[in-house]
Every structure is written in C-alpha cells, then in structure tokens.
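User: structure tokens for this one?
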Amino acid sequence: MGRVNDVQQLALEIFSRSTASLFGLFLFIATTISLLRTVVVPRSLTSVIADTISNFVTWMHRTIASTRKTYKGRDAVLAWSGPMIIVSQLLTWLLLYFVAYGLWIYGIGGVNFGGAFREAGSSLFTLGFADSTSASPTILDFMAAATGPIVIALLIGFLPTIYGAYIDREVNVSLLGVAGGQPSWGPEFLARLSLNGQLPDLPTRVESWIHWLGNVRLTHMTYPVLVQIRSASPYRHWLISALCVMDAASLHLALTKTLPRQESSELLIHGTQTLETIYASLLIRKKFGANLPFVGKYFGAPTPTERKFQQMPGYKPGTIAVEMASTADSTRGYSNRAINIMRAGEQKGISLTRAEFNDAVAMMQEAGYPIEVDLDTAWEQFSISRKRYEFAAYQLAYALDVVPAPWSGPRRKPTPTIEPTSAVELLKTQVQKDASLTTSTTPNDVSTHPAASPDEKSTPSEPDAQHH
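Assistant:
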C-alpha cells in the first residue's frame, strides 16, 4: 500500500513538474512575442497581453474620469492613461517572465515550488541571493539574469521614441492654438489668418499639416499608446487639431474659386486616411473570420457623389481620381467589418446643421475672408467633403473623450461646447471702444487747451530767433 502511494505521489509530481515546464515555456514564448510586437517591430501588430493591459488601464481611467463633473476634471484623470499603459505593460512583462522562469525552474530543476520562484526572482532582477548547484537551473538562472536587463533596456529605449514622437506631434498642435484658437476650430483658423493678412501663406501652412497628418498616421499606428497620450493643455488635442485643419480645408474649397486649392484637396485625402486608419485599426475589434478581400471603397459602385462633386467650383477630374485611387489602396488593410461600419456612417451624411455653417461663414466674412461662391452651392460642397471624415472623427472624439470643441460631435458624458476666443468679436469690441472714445471728446475738453493765436504762432522762441 505504501509503495502504491509512493508511485502515485511520484506520478503526481512528474505530472505537476511537466505541466509547470510546459506552461512556463508557453508563458515565456507568449511574453516574448508580446514584447517584440509592441516595442521592437515597427509595425501595427496586435498583442493579446499588451492590448489587454491597455484596455484595462483605459477602462479604469475612464471609470474614474466619469465621476468628475467638468471636462477639465476628466482630462486631469485621462492624462494619466497613456503613461500608465506604458508602465503597466513593463511591469506585466516582468511579472510574466518571473512566473515563467519560476515554473521552469520548478519543473526542470527539481527545486520546491517556493524555492523555484525565489530563485527566479533573484536571477531575473540580478540580485543573486538564491541559486542552485545543478546544471539545468543554472542555465535558466543565466537566461533570467539576461532577460530582466533586456526588458528594462528595451523600455528605456522605447520611452524616448514615444515621447520624441509626442513632441513632434505637439509642436504643430501648440502652434495651432495661436492660429486656430484653444480649442482649435476650422472657421476660427481661417478668420484669424484673414485678420492677420496671412491668407497668401495658407498653401504653405496646409503643406506643413499634410506632413503632420502623415507623421501622425505612421507613429500612432506603430505605437498605439500615443493615441492615449494627451496634450499638456486640456484645451488642446491632436484629434481636434486634425479636425480643425480638415474643416478649414473643406471650407476653403467650398467658399473660394481664385485662391490656391490643390494643397487643401491633398490635405483632405491625407486627413481622411489618417482618421479612418486609426479608427479602423484601434477602435474596431476584428472578429475571427471577418477579414474578407476588399479592393477599394469605390470599386464597382455607382458614383452619384463624384458626379455631384464634379459640378462644384474648382473641380478637377484628376483630383477625384487621385482620391479614389488612394482610398482604394488604403482600405486594403481594413477588416470587412470596419469597411461596413464606416460606409454606413458616411452614408448618413453629416450631423452639422446648415445654420451652424451659415453662422461660421458670416463670422469669416466679417474677418475679411473672401466668399466667392453662393452659400447653397458652398454648403453642398462642404457637406460632400466633410461626410468623408466626420464619422471617423466623431467616433474617435467620443472614444477618447477629447476637448468638446465646436463641430466635434458628442461625448460619453454630455458636456457643454467650449468655444475658442473669437478674434472677430474682440476686433468689434475694440472698434466700438475706439469709437466711443472719439465721440466722448467734448468742446470743454478742447477749450482747456486753446489754440495759439496767429501772433504766438509766428513768434519764434528766442533761441530760434537768434539761430535764424
């Protein structure tokens, strides 16, 4: 009977150690793949471990932020989300390696369970206070001692990359705070350029934003945590900046005929692709078997929108052809589910009202912006341009809970719109003050400083008389 118990105990120990070895090997491989896909490989790759940590940290911060009454209070909480994702991923990878090596040492080295994890921690964090004399655990000790510093070194190199991309992004966002207000708004951007006599510089400014949009598309797909890292000011956000310049480009194309237009058309192409790519890749979860071949957004479909667009002022067939081709290329990487969601959202049209559009145009006209197209035609063209990016922009704004700027859609928690300071209103106020100062001058004020008599005017001062 005792021999049977010994055999059963031996079988149980063999099974336990074998299972621990296999699970430790699986955990080591899974953690290494997650680390490489997140930090090393410069491509938008999914990782179950990293994505789970990111989603949990994001959910936790959103839950806490939802208890705050004001947007500024919510932003103060959400500002921690991005950095905490990075720290949490580092700690999780180290913890998983610790568990993997502990299970390995227990399964291979013949060490008891507690001693195995004590030795794994000592080696992983290069403390060296626990070791074994047998060959198998010693090899694992060496591997663990190399793994810990490598993980930490990768994160040390990862942080400058992340924050370097963040600084590059925020330079333009900060500059737009002057040109387009805080929060930035497309009509205010064009109005301030008009007031400042900088409309001739618009093509140069638009070109810089084209490069910015391309940079955001690359960096935020390669390092998705950048999407969660917010600006230093609660009233600035990279998404609102993108929406601002895209609205400005759409208004410029809809309202003018004579000013340069090609740069604005190109900006809308890049901006639409940037917002759709980030939305489709990061916010729409792919379902198993949902990826079906798709050759382009407009392939094989009727083109009533394009024919209507051809009748708009400044239409160029080449511009529409370029946009259709580039859109077909960019959508090849989207899931079929993402395509259907964005297509349905685009077909609903824009949520912006004609009254909001008219008010913005009136404000721009007061600033001296040239309105060269009748408002009915301009509204139609603006609607066609904006519906291509409004859905993705509003979905991102809702998910990220960005600053509630004008024309940026609803938020998770209903929040009043925060308007930028209107330069046009300030100008009108200043003009009224100047006019009131002029009219407030009375005859009594003039009489206190009587004009000199003709004799007094003709009599020079003594030094002057001597000089002459």
